[in-house]
Structure formats: C-alpha cells, structure tokens
Amino acid sequence: MERDMPKASLKALIPALLAFVFLLSACGGGNGGGNAAQQSEGSGKSSGTEEKPYELVVAFMYFGSEQKDTNLIAEEVSKITKEKINATVKLMPLSVSAYTQQMNLILSGNEKLDLLFVSAANHAPFVNRGQLVELTDLLDQYGQGVKEAVGDFLEAAKVNGKIYVVPTVREFASSYGINMRKDLVEKYNIDVNAIKTFDDVADVLRLIKKNEPNVYPLVGMMPDRGILDFGYFKDDQLGDSFGVLPDYDNGFQVVNRFEQDYYVEYLNMLRQWYNEGLIQPDIATNQASRNELFQAGKAFAWFNHLKPGYEVQASLEMGTDIVTVELTPPVATTSTVMTVNWGIARNSQNPEKAMQFLNLLYTDAEIQNLLSWGIEGKHYVKNADGTIRYPDGINPDEHGYNYNLSWMWGNQLLSHIWEGNPADLWDQIKAFNDRAIKSRALGFNFDSSVVQTEFASVSNVLDQYQVGLETGALDPAQIHQDFVNRLKAAGIDKIIEEKQRQLDAWRAANGK
Questions:
Q1: Rounded to 5 degrees, what are φ and ψ at 488?
Q2: Residues 435, 469: contact at Cβ < 8 Å?
Q3: What is the pTM of this model?
Q4: Measured in whole angstroms, how far is the alpha carbon of residue 77 from the centre of its chain?
Q5: Which tens digits make up the pLDDT trace of 161-213?
Q6: Please, are residues 157 and 298 in contact by the beta-carbon 8 Å criterion?
Q7: Sign of the four-CA dihedral 468, 463, 255, 512
Q8: Enclosing H/E stretch for 290
Q9: What are phi and psi of 494, to 5 degrees?
Q10: 236: how many CB neighbours lie within 10 A of its CB?
Q11: Domains located in the chain, CATH noted
C-alpha cells in the first residue's frame, strides 16, 4: 500500500527501523490468535529506546443511552493493548440517530480517528469519498487473525479486488420477522405460533391498538428508516437497493425495485396500517430510537432481521422481555455479510497500529468480552453452565456498561453467552448460516464510483420519499409514480445499467 511519508535523515530513521525489526521478530502469548497474534503484538521497545504508546480512537454506534463506565472499559482494554501492541484505546460512543452525520463530519475534517464501525449503508459512501484506508496489504501484514476468523466471507468485502472494511464474525445470514413485548403477548393470550403472514401480524396489531391506547402497536427499527427496510422485499439489494435481484436470483437480471409490483403491494399494506393507527403516527419524523420507546413503555412491536438468540439480545436492549416470530427463512447475501463492519479512517495517523488492534478484536477473547460485557464481577458474573448474567442486586438501568453489542466487536464467537440462551448458541449460529438460502450474487460488491454523480442524485430522491412511503406516512396512490419518475430523472437507470455490467463481469470471472 502506498502512503505519503515525511522525509527524514538516516539518523532519524534508525530508531524507527530498529523498532520495526523488533516488532516483526517479537512473539508473545496470544489469546486464540496463534501466529496472527504474534504478528500483531510488540512492545515498541528497541535497543533501550521505548516508543510512546499510540492512542487509538475507536468510534462505535450504540442504541439507547451512553454508558457511564465506557472510559473504565477503555482503560481495562488499554492495559492489554499497551502490553501487546504498545497502544492505548479511547472509545468514542455515538448514538445511532447521530452516527452517520457525526462520522461524515469527522471523516471530512482532520479530527483524530483510527477505527470506526461501518454499516452496510455507509460502506459505499465512505469508500467513494476516500474516507477509509484500503486494507488489503495491512491485512496481509498485520491481520492474519482477522483473515482466519472471517474466512471465505472476506470475499464479500471486496470492491474491485480491494478491501476497505472487515465484517464482524457473527451470523452471516438473516431471517426476518416481528419482535413483540412478551408481557402484552401474554396479557392478551396471543398465539405466536399462529403468526405466519402479514395479515396475522395486522390482527395482532389491531388487538393492541384496541386495548392499549397509550402504546404504539408498531414502531420503526431506527430513526429515518422504513419499517420494512431489513429484508422483507425478498430481493438481493446488491449493496444499495439501486438495482436488485428479485428472489435472490432472477437469472442475474438487475431490476428497479421501486417499479416492481411487490414493492407497491408492500407500500399499500403499510399505508392501510398507518391509516388504521397501527403504526406510530410520527414515525417518518421521529428521532427517538426504538430502545427509548420501549424503555418508556410506549411501543409494542417492530420488524427487523432475526438470528438464533435474538430474543435475549433484544430483551436486554429494550429493557423488557421480547418474543420474536420468524416470517421468512434465513438468506445470505453480500449485504447480510456486510451488515456490521470495521474500517480504518483516513484520519488515522497510524493505520498499521490500527490494524494490529483490529487483529486483536478478532482473536483476543479478553478484549472481546471487555468490550461486549464489561468487567467480570462488576458488570456480569458467570453461571455454572458458562453463560453470564447481571450481578445480584444490579439494576440494568444503572449498570454502567450495558450496551449489549457483542455482535459489533470483532468476533462474537469469542464472547460469553448471556443467560437465557442455550450454551451451544454459537453452534446454532453456524448451523443457521449453513441452512440459509444463498443469493446467486453472494460475494458481488458493486463499485458505485463509476456513477457517483447519479448515485448522489438518486440518494437525494430517496431521502425525500423513501421513509415516508415505507412507513405508510405518505399515500403511494398519490406519491409513488412521482417518486419513480424522480428516480429516473436522477439517473437510476444508468446505475442499474452499470450494476448489470459489473455483475455480468463478476459472474464471468467467478464461473457463476
């Protein structure tokens, strides 16, 4: 990887060269990383000269509230990283509602940032704007543990053969369904096994609407997103939804989702629900997260992707017991693999050190559990079966470190399993991945830089229409055709044409 380097005299370079030689030759007690852990560790000391630890700034997205012990966890992680890679860690938590905006500001400026959480939606924009460091060479040099942990799924991260983000190790497929408050399900004797279709869901929502006037029957997954934005369209969105493969196949023919009959049918259904009062009335403009709505007792249900163990994860996040109902089988696409990722910011002053820390995220169980659950004995305790729980007398609302984001931190399969889940949860996750329907385009990653102008214009149109239509707040009978016309005027057909060209080339190169 080429980077601009400052000029220096030979004398000034000698300590750095010696330190580098020491780093390559150093070895230490890795925690599950083997040779990869040895590659990523080094004290930074050479010939009596001690290098000052580099401070890594790590940004991540959280739901709910910022936790008061975040800095304490950073200090504990830093004790490990200082010993292994001569670096300390500063955590930068950002609310989900502000994350994208804050990242755009930081990445557009010169504020110090090394590692950042990258969602599927942010992947292409960050890459196109040159805001992420290209990782291919760094992975080869310092990230062997990452490569081993992610395995073949790392292919899904490639854009024109280059890697800018690394997906976390977790479920690589998604099924889709509805999540509901367990107390209200039990109060009204709702038979969750009888919920099979959207009509069944609507009947349950009507029951809540009738009997719980102070509760929104259905809320969104997060602010500024459609209700069915997480897979109900049953197509491979090929990274951005600007050109999709219906039924995860369609003979590799890319189409405009927003023109399809199935899309219009969903819009009409949501509009009917909205008019019936089944959907939160200010959903298109609301900025409160679903966590906040549930914790305030104002919400009953939301749709999103599911996986083994999601009931327990959602219950912890919402602060109340949740039951889930799967409505579709699991599907694996490039987008499901790339839902949760880590990248190195272009602002980083030391991408090599950032990759060394990224390698630890995927290989070091102690770091994984500190970031996922906090400090043993203070934030969690172990049960006899190896699962974990809150310490006795601890109120989750006053817990101190209750983000519940084990799926975000590198390699979830290294983390402890929360009580209520089966002790073999990680085996179930692997089986879930194995039984998933695999899109015929799994591994294809669209490079939108060729149509960057059109991509930006189409994105602007979606910003104006999509949330309103996909929450039921706007009437598709009046708005949909104008929406489609505006998309075409913005250049969506050119994007689809370019995506088809790239997909055909990828298909030919990979013998699909």
A1: -65, -40
A2: no
A3: 0.71
A4: 22
A5: 899 999 999 999 989 999 999 999 999 999 999 999 999 999 999 999 999 99
A6: no
A7: negative
A8: helix 290-295
A9: -70, -40
A10: 27
A11: 28-173+331-433 (3.40.190.10)
